[in-house]
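Dear Dr. K.,

Following up on our conversation at the group meeting, I've run the structure prediction for Protein-export membrane protein SecF from Candidatus Liptonbacteria bacterium RIFOXYC1_FULL_36_8. I'm pasting the input sequence below exactly as I used it, so you can double-check it against your construct before we proceed with anything downstream. Let me know if the numbering doesn't match what you have in your notebook.
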Amino acid sequence: MINVVGKRKIFLGVAAVMVAAALISIFYFGFKEGIDFSGGTLWQVKFDKEIAQEEIVNILKDNGAEGVVINKSGDGSYLLRFKSISEEEHKKISSVLEEKEGSFKELSFQSIGPSVGKELKTKAVFGVVFVLLAISIYVSLAFLKVSYPIKSWKYGVVALLCLFHDVVIPAGVLAWLGEYKGVEIDTNFVVALLVIAGFSVHDTIVVFDRIREKLGLARGREQLSVVINDSVNETMARSINTSLTLAIMLLALYFAGPINLQYFVLTILIGTVVGTYSSIFVASPFLVVWHSLSKRVHPVK
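The predicted structure tokens came back this morning:
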């Protein structure tokens, strides 16, 4: 049995360091926005023969495309990013490209104007904030019957703090990758954060539910720290096994899946790891710390 509560200072300290590093990364580097948020065109094409990247870029530039960036994926296709163009310009460039370089297959084409990108960004921020708050309220209501010795709303606040921990760390990693690897965030990134939040809170609720069950059986005869430590250890194997299964699937998808989903998968993978850490080593120990501080501030008379 791991004394999670007894070593809470270490576990909470590690969590605090990771969150601080992630926040520094976010505020120092910022995010490299993809076309979903900044506007622009994303075009993926695959030729029947090997084509020099410089030739493709030059053809696009000669026909009105601005800010062209090209990347070659593992399946031999080319991922092109440039400023937004109209459907007429798209057809013109396609025709010229086919005429000069031979036939090709268009795998995807997406063009978003700057105003639409700004609107999507605003909706994404509000969406993530709304989901985190809604989950926190739900957890508070779900544990209304657990009033002693911890008030139900504290479960909701702790769940919200853990969710913040679980989404800000992957976000910090993506900000760092954007600075040094040119990785862009898009709507897939937002979806990944929501997936992480859902998975994380489910794991946390499992632990909290066991605490609720054991507090009801103990009826004040056992110390809160003992009840919480036992609850964490009883649910630890389930949490780790569930996360490990998901991580294996995500790793397979990362290495064998489509290139445009790699960082979406990586975000969820990081969130799965830190979410498992928070549900085991952060959520419950933080409840103990909060309860101890409350007793010092408002001692029982």
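Two things stood out to me. The CA atoms of residues 254 and 261 lie 8 Å apart. The chain has a mean pLDDT of 87.

Best regards,
J.T.
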